[in-house]
Amino acid sequence: MRAVVVKSFGGPEVVEIAEVPVPEPGARQVRIKVAAGALNPVDVGVRVGVFGGAGRTLGLGWDVAGTVDAVGAPAAWRVGDPVVALVPGVADPLGAHAEYVVVDADAVAAAPVSVDAVHAGTLPLNGLTALQALDLLDLAPGGRLLVTGAAGAVGGFAVQLAAHRGIEVTGHARAGDEELVRSLGAAHFTAEGVGAGSVDAVLDAAVLGAPALGWVRDGGVFAAVRDGVLPQGDRGVRMENVWVRADGGQLAELVRLVDEGVLTLRVAEAYALEEAVEAHARFAEGGVRGRLVLVP
To answer: N or C: which end of the chain has fewer CB within 10 A?
Structure first.
């Protein structure tokens, strides 16, 4: 089968399409015939060597939408079930950007019925990251949350999920993104920032660091979502970092919210698997609103 891999670190040009064996599911695993999967910043991190692994073949791709192709007993899934799953890993020889992928059965959720596989393939990584970040922040309805990078994938999901929970959301993004961010449910918008101590919590999806920490009130909470980057905490602010984990139950909850119209899945463009280099090059240009998706 075909799979997207890197064998050396660098720009989009190091991305390769390799022929690799079809993986076999073990106990409590399923094999998914991949229909689509988004390209994410973590894939770029693997490609450029952020996570190490020099001298090895590294697979790319964390998001998958497709159909169950084989199961390892015991498993609750059946061949033919449409599913989505998170396929975490930064040093594995095979990722989700492939024709088939094997995942633990408890990482899988039934696919949304209201969208196609290309859109469904944008949900797992960024949706789970946003959901798990909000759970860490643990704000009650009426709490004041500022989300940086609110027009991005994680930030956009966080705005929608928080607004659905009754949290008062301020979206932080570039001025040109105000209409988008408000359409996602943000009650307030800023391109410059807010006053010191103005909010109960910040979800720092854009990794602004110390400036964003200053917007949190004394005794509030701050969560960063990328690469373990946390500014030096003070004023009794609880500091959290979001390390996303596969969770089929939480993913099923996100799917339900997609089908209820609470969550919007945004696709910028779809590429064939053979066009992985082009997709990485487009991602590197920046300015993408919605995800680039690879389709085997």
So the answer is: N
